[in-house]
Design a protein that fits this description.
Keywords: Flavoprotein, FMN, Iron, Iron-sulfur, Metal-binding, Oxidoreductase
Protein name: NADPH-dependent 2,4-dienoyl-CoA reductase
Domain FAD/NAD(P)-binding: 376-629
Structural class: alpha/beta
CATH architecture of the largest domain: Alpha-Beta Barrel
Cofactor: [4Fe-4S] cluster; FMN
Largest sheet: 8 strands, parallel, barrel
Family: In the N-terminal section; belongs to the NADH:flavin oxidoreductase/NADH oxidase family.
Radius of gyration: 26 Å
Strand content: 15-25%
Number of domains: 3
Strand order of the largest sheet: 3-4-5-8-9-10-11-12
CATH class of the largest domain: Alpha Beta
């Protein structure tokens, strides 16, 4: 059997999980939509059908003070139970177990009624929390117990108590947020009293034939967080009180260390889980940046954990486990850790989905149903929009021919995969190529069809992408000028002094390419050690919170200046959950930014520009142009006699990215 450890059952005594894979908790924002619980039931059911052993739902609050934001889901009354039964009944059609996560946001709530152990405002919300008094703490405890009881009535197999990521329980545990002097604060024995009371009371109320998971923060990554001895003390106490599984949590939401973005190496924190595991007799779960069955299996083989939790990988591919079981890992649509359609969506109150799988979260709305009458379709351009449209349309039964003028599919995904921190895009390219090979799509590379060639098709889809906007100033063709595509592809060498025209996403990619320490050829352990040194992570957690001084002094010898015509923060169009990482790296490397620059000319002396009416010349060796893109269509649309659909960059470049292009392709493929 492939992946024998990952796919082996786990006996908890009173119940057995079919394998060691957990679909970790993530908020989808589905609950708040019209027919939200029906949509959520379909979302979870599809993952259960895909073979995952255990699902943990997104966080459900035990009371109104614990919600993350207004109108979020609460389970505090019997009237709420019926909606949750839609979820449990849908999942229990399969062998999968499902636990509901109970999450009290504490000071992280984005509303005026938030509470916390102490009245200390979080840096990520504008609200000052009310410090709970003893009577209010008692009510909070009872609300946790009541929520767990109602979860059992709703048919859940258990609950996960969210004790990490900086939410209420974590706030009680750490000095960072607990400055109390009563029985709930001060000594660590007092600070861990709240989570232990939650577990103790739930066990007393519900008995032992109910899965009880505690999400334990094993590395807070904030000052005055828990140290390793405190983590172990709490873990052992939780085990004694009857917790069945310890799920590991890494970092608070306010930490300034990346924990799940693409710059984080795969399984970067599994060694910490391994250290905790040595002290426990109950299963512990590894988490964060585990996105392939090979990585997951290695964690179990190396005895670093008993189970693995993957959240976003189940957005990317609901049948992750079944594909692994069938020894078809090459067909898994792998999470690329981009955050663009999941976390970035949640931050603007949209439904969480996935760049590589736009059906995620839209299972009841976006369906690729078999067609009653197949059409002959031509797709021009095999970038992300064209390639994914072809895959989806062929899946429905259409006869699809995919034309691509270059010798490879993927378009600018091929560039993205060569940008430091975006190497996971290689996995998406692998998925596209594998899926095309196994589909009925006829792929024609090095072929740009004429209007006459296309006349034989019922409908035509133009997905020919974009071309780079060129400079229109004197010297635009000077040898110092380099196209961003050429630089990212690894073509021309640049000197030590570089100007980048533009401060958008592509300009950030270029800067990353120029300044990064290239670690792609390193082993995973080397990448993890470098990551820890770069970001100041103490994996041993000897300090309180696991933070230490960065020991990475590798600075680029490049002198880089980014210029833009507008006045705005560099990277203004990038996702807010990752842009801070990139801005921080540019700042660390001394990259300068000039705004309100009007480009005048390029010459042997460098780049001349006007700044507030004064001309200046940057003495640079190279000028990389990232001045935007233009839609690229080589046909006159009026020449077509049949229906023509323009998608992706060929249609619109404003706010263009792969996520929007693939999403547009998917919806068209579903209805054509």
């Amino acid at each position: 059997m492939p992946y024998p450890n990952l796919l082996s059952p786990l006996n908890l005594g009173f119940t057995t999980l079919s394998n060691r894979v957990i679909m970790g908790s993530m908020h989808t924002n589905l609950e708040e939509q019209q027919n939200g619980f029906e949509r959520l039931a379909a979302f979870y059911a599809e993952r259960a059908a895909g073979g995952v052993g255990l699902i943990i739902t997104g966080g459900v609050s035990p009371n109104t003070s614990g919600i993350l934001a207004p109108n979020r889901v609460i389970l505090s009354d019997h009237k709420h139970v019926t909606a949750h039964q839609l979820i449990t009944q849908a999942v229990h059609q399969f062998s999968t177990k499902i636990c509901m996560q109970i999450l009290h946001a504490g000071r992280y709530g984005y509303h005026s009624k938030i509470v916390a152990p102490s009245a200390i405002q979080a840096p990520i919300t504008p609200f000052l929390p009310h410090a709970l008094n003893a009577e209010e703490i008692e009510q909070q405890l009872e609300d946790f117990v009541n929520c767990a009881y109602l979860a059992k009535q709703a048919g859940y197999d258990g609950v996960e108590i969210m004790g990490s990521e900086g939410y209420l329980i974590n706030q009680f545990i750490c000095l960072h947020t607990n400055q109390r002097s009563d029985q709930w604060g001060g000594s660590f024995a007092n600070r861990m009293r709240f989570p232990l009371e939650v577990i103790k009371r739930i066990r007393q109320r519900l008995g032992h034939n109910f899965i009880l998971i505690f999400r334990l923060s094993i590395l807070d990554l904030v000052n005055q967080g828990s140290n390793f001895d405190e983590v172990i003390t709490l873990a052992l106490a939780l085990q004694k009180e009857g917790v069945d599984i310890i799920n590991s949590g890494i970092g608070w939401h306010e930490t300034r260390v990346p924990t799940i973005a693409g710059v984080v190496p795969r399984a970067a924190f599994s060694s910490i889980t391994a250290r905790v595991k040595k002290h426990l007799s109950i299963p512990i779960v590894a988490c964060n940046r585990i996105n392939t069955p090979e990585i997951a299996e290695a964690i179990l083989v190396n005895n670093e954990a008993d189970m693995v939790s993957m959240a976003r990988p189940f957005l990317a591919d609901s049948h992750f486990v079944n594909k692994a079981k069938a020894d078809s890992a090459d067909t898994i649509n792998t999470c690329i850790a981009c955050n663009q359609a999941c976390l970035d969506h949640i931050f603007v109150n949209k439904v969480a989905s996935c760049l590589v799988n736009p059906r995620a979260g839209f299972e009841t709305l976006l369906k690729f149903e078999a067609v009653s009458q197949a059409k002959k379709l031509a797709v021009v351009g095999a970038g992300p929009a064209g390639a994914m449209f072809a895959i989806y349309a062929a899946q429905r039964g259409h006869s699809v021919t995919l034309y691509e003028k270059s010798n490879r599919v993927g378009g600018q995904l091929n560039l993205a995969a060569k940008v430091p921190g975006k190497e996971e895009f290689k996995e998406f390219l692998r998925y596209i190529n594998t899926t095309l090979q196994q589909s009925t799509v006829e792929l024609k590379l090095l072929c740009e069809p004429s209007i006459n060639d296309l006349a034989h098709y019922d409908e035509v889809i133009l997905a020919s992408g974009t071309i780079a906007r060129e400079l229109t100033i004197p010297g635009a063709n000077h040898p110092k000028v380099i196209a961003y595509q050429d630089l990212i592809e690894g073509g021309p060498k640049v000197g030590d002094k570089v100007a980048i025209i533009g401060t958008g996403g592509i300009a950030f990619d270029v800067a990353a390419k120029l300044i990064a320490t290239h670690t792609e050829a390193w082993s995973i352990s080397q990448q993890r050690d470098y990551f820890a040194a770069r970001w100041g992570i103490d994996y041993a957690n000897t300090s309180s919170g696991g933070l230490c001084e960065s020991t990475d002094n590798t600075l680029s010898d490049k002198q880089i200046t980014m210029l833009q015509r507008k006045i705005r923060k560099p990277g203004a169009g990038l996702g807010q959950t990752t842009v801070w990482i990139h801005r921080g790296e540019l700042k660390r490397q001394g990259v300068k930014t000039i705004s309100r620059a009007d480009y005048v000319a390029i010459s042997d002396e460098g780049l001349t520009f006007s700044l507030r009416g004064e001309e200046k010349t940057l003495d640079v060796d190279a000028i990389v142009v990232c001045a935007g893109q233009l839609s690229h269509i080589t046909y006159e649309l009026t020449d077509f006699k049949q229906p023509v659909h323009v998608i992706g960059g060929a249609k619109k470049v404003l706010k263009l990215d792969a996520k929007n292009a693939i999403e547009e392709a998917a919806w068209l493929a579903a209805k054509i």
